[in-house]
Amino acid sequence: MNPRLIKAYEYYNVVVRSAVMGLAYIAGTAVCVMVAVTCVDVVLRRLGSPLHGALDIVTIAGTIAIGGAMPYTTAVKGHVSIEYFFHKLSRKGRIVVDTFSRLIGITLFIYLTRQFAQYGTTLRASGRVMPTLQTPVFWMPYMLSVCCALVTLVILHNMLHPNRKMIKP
Predict the structure, then answer these.
(1) N or C: where does the chain have the smaller number of CB atoms within 10 Å of the terminal CB?
(2) Cβ partners under 8 Å of residue 71, min gap 6
(3) What's the total number of domains in the chain?
(4) Is residue 82 part of a domain?
């Protein structure tokens, strides 16, 4: 095999793995923010003064958590699957079903990448902001678009290497 191609593939793997892990850490941090903000808001509500913008912060953190966790979950092959029926198929049947489902996944996430990017552009043009904090929201669909694009790359990797996880949990 061509040494340049091998080097390019290794670089691709490093970049994608780094992006997946970076987003996973950001998603984990977002979950911690959601918990902390919710706890502080509950305590402050009991004291008669709720946390200003708590719902906006939790909404933003939830978006970040969901988007950032998708590539990692795909990379560790952590999605729910129906193994019972899958293993009832012959080896050739499993290859066909696996390839077909991955192609559907790639198509879906390419579509989602495009749609989120378009929606972010629409939100940016409209100047829409969060209700309480008045922070712009256009960047959230852009972030989800990047996450969906990364999921597409991970699914492609999984399709080319069906018995290997990209990242070990």
Answers:
(1) N
(2) 19, 20, 23, 24, 147, 150, 151, 154
(3) 1
(4) yes
